[in-house]
Amino acid sequence: MSSETIVTALFLISAVIAAGVLINAIFPAIYRTADTFGSVSSQADTKMRTDFRIVNTFANATTVKVWVKNVGSARLHTNEINTGDIYVGAPGNFERRSLSGRYTIEENTNSYWDPGETLTITVTDAGDLLPGSGGDVYVAVVLPNGVRRDLTFTRS
Predict the structure, then answer these.
(1) pLDDT tens for residues 23-74?
(2) Domain identity same for 45 and 74
(3) What is the CATH number of the domain that holds 87?
(4) How many domains is the chain partitioned into structurally?
(5) Is 150's pLDDT higher than 80?
(6) Is 108 left (phi over 0), alpha (psi -120 to 50) or beta?
(7) CB contact at 8 A, 130 and 79
(8) What span, in angstroms and rounded, lies between the C-alpha atoms of 60 and 137?
């Protein structure tokens, strides 16, 4: 009778130790997976809440100006905007330029592009890419999270 109790106790102790070893082996993988899903979910949420519209454009022989309004519910820090891109030129003949140093946020009171605020983007070094007067100009604004808007308009 006591031998059965000892054997049962040994089996119970072995099962608890095996469960502990299994948990220690699997827990880091579960933690990494949960962390990955959390990160991807956060990025997707920010991308879904980010939206903007090109509300006005202007181009002459050397300069392109684009006014962009934040119509989403997310606000973007200026550091994020600095890593965005603008593509300018004639359709089929355009080049990428960084947004860094090329924009101002109208009536801004902080370091964020808040919903409802307008971003004025000025590209002064696109003259060799622009068509003659009356030609079409292509503009695409791409934020670092992948949200983009493009427009083709006629140069004045």
Answers:
(1) 777 777 776 766 666 665 666 666 677 889 999 999 988 899 999 999 988 8
(2) no
(3) 2.60.40.10
(4) 2
(5) yes
(6) beta
(7) no
(8) 10
Tell me the CA distances in angstroms from 123 to 1, 18, 97, one per residue in order: 90, 65, 8
pLDDT tens digits along 76-131: 899 999 999 999 999 988 999 999 999 999 988 899 999 999 999 999 988 788 88
Tell me the residue type at 4: E
For residue 75, count CB atoms less than 10 angstroms from its CB and return exposed for 0-12, middle for 13-18, buried for 19 or more. Answer: middle
Cα angle, residue 39 at apex, residues 33 and 45 outer, rounded to 5°: 135
Same domain, 56 and 39: no
Say if CB 92 and CB 43 are below 8 A apart: no
Phi, psi of 137 (to 5 degrees): -115, 130
